[in-house]
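Incident log, support desk, overnight shift.

02:14 A customer reports that sequence design results differ from what the structure should imply. Their input is reproduced verbatim below. On-call engineer (initials T.W.) acknowledged and began investigating.
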């Protein structure tokens, strides 16, 4: 390498493109060995010459790629938190399982192809800045982009499938025909997005594809509704009167199939549990000696994209008495059972099978004579994306 540099006859290294490319490739080959500080200076030395460079596995914390051309560069499993890509140009650039929190992509321009396996996949872009960036047809698939700033960003026909975009800012962003399958847009601000050329016309915004728009700021000062409850009205049991001993029949709740009929009541009772003592509203069988069941059937059609990618994770959390069990059964499109969970007493979580199209949630009071332990305080069922993005293990409150 030294001989090559001597043969430049003391001319600038960039004067001979062949020698320059060889030196650059050889130098970048040791990027993981020189430490983060030297790496940043090395990138500054090469300036805008990162075309086709493979940075896989490198540590690039706070690296500066401003004004660079990163066409066909690869950043797989790179730690580049707080990096800067201001006015960067990219095409066929690949970011996968990359740590990119608080990264600056403002005014960047990416020339993307709609059907492409390169882009942002499974990466963590939380609290990053994409203001005024041009991201036409770019891929943001299974990414954590919580609190991202997409202000005045061109996202037309971009693919945001199954990404979590909670608290995202889309001030005057262009979102026409962007794919939003299974995205989480809770608490995002999409009140001024442009979908077909003008603010106020959202005919080409595919918000109905999102899993949830809960508490999102929509146009016309509307607030996004929470997802439809898979269980009860508010996900919990309800007692009309908070009076100890008072009961009410729940036969008018058509979402539950109760067997035998008219055997389940709500009751406000003191629970003397092993770990918890409190007054609570519960489900309980009354005047029964044989097993009583409550069955709830859940259509999973809105999760089809996630299920077919084996990225749909179902989680059940419950609080039941010791003579009560909760069981989840998966069914295919022909209503054939694909198997049931073990009895759940507190928590269960599992990836849904590839051919699953519906679930049956069963609450079974198998010994109703044991009145003190035949009760169900609550059952929560969540179906969400199985995220594999780095530093994103706890994205949901029920995972804590």
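02:41 Re-run completed on a clean worker. Output:
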């Amino acid at each position: 390498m030294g001989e090559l540099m001597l043969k430049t006859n003391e001319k600038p290294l960039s004067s001979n493109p062949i020698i320059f490319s060889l030196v650059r490739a050889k130098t970048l080959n040791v990027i993981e060995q020189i430490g983060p500080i030297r790496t940043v200076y090395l990138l500054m030395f090469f300036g805008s010459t990162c075309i086709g460079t493979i940075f896989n596995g490198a540590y690039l914390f706070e690296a500066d790629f401003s004004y660079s051309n990163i066409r066909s560069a690869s950043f797989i499993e790179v730690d580049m938190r707080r990096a800067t890509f201001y006015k960067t140009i990219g095409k066929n650039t690949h970011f996968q399982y990359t740590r990119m929190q608080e990264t600056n992509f403002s005014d960047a321009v990416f020339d993307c192809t709609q059907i492409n396996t390169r882009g942002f996949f499974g990466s963590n872009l939380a609290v990053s800045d994409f203001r005024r960036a041009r991201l036409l047809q770019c891929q943001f698939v299974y990414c954590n982009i919580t609190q991202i700033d997409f202000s005045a960003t061109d996202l037309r026909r971009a693919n945001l499938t199954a990404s979590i975009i909670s608290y995202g800012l889309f001030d005057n962003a262009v979102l026409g025909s962007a794919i939003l399958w299974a995205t989480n847009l809770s608490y995002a601000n999409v009140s001024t997005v442009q979908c077909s050329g003008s603010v106020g016309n959202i005919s080409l915004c595919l918000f109905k594809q999102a899993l949830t728009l809960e508490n999102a700021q929509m146009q016309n000062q509307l607030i996004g509704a929470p997802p439809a409850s898979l269980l009860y009205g508010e996900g919990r049991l309800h007692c009309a009167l908070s009076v100890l001993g008072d009961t009410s029949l729940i036969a008018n709740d058509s979402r539950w199939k109760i067997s035998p009929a008219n055997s389940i009541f709500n009751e406000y009772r003191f629970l003397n549990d092993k770990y918890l003592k409190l007054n609570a509203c519960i489900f309980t069988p009354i005047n029964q000696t044989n097993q009583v069941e409550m069955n709830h059937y859940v259509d999973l059609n809105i999760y089809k994209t996630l299920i077919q990618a084996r990225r749909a994770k179902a989680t059940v959390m419950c609080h039941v008495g010791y003579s009560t069990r909760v069981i989840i059964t998966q069914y295919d499109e022909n209503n054939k059972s694909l198997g049931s969970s073990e009895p759940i007493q507190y928590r269960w979580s599992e990836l849904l099978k590839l051919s699953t199209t519906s679930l049956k949630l069963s609450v079974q009071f198998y010994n109703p004579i044991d009145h003190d332990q035949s009760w169900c305080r609550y059952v929560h069922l969540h179906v969400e994306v199985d995220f594999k993005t780095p530093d994103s293990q706890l994205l949901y409150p029920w995972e804590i």
